[in-house]
Amino acid sequence: MVAVGLGGPGVGLDFAPGGIVERIRAAVRGRGAEAIGQLGLITVLYLGYRAGRLVTADDTGRAMVNAHSVLGFEERLGFLEERDGPGIVCGP
Of 15, 19, 26, 88, which residue is most buried, by most CB within 10 angstroms? Predict the structure, then answer.
């Protein structure tokens, strides 16, 4: 905790590290189950992400086929107006 004086001969900064530690302990006390639950959720989400990445690994050929089919569909609907823009490459 930092205390700043506003005037007089004893003006200065006083640092009390024990106050910081006690505030942290008070904030964390009783929240262990919440922290464990959040860590569990993060772990499950991360493992799901990694599993999805493993399932779709090395499937770029299929992704390109899908992309071209979507572009063809958009072209039939008339959505490819951005094709005329500079530096944009659309299509095969």
Answer: 19
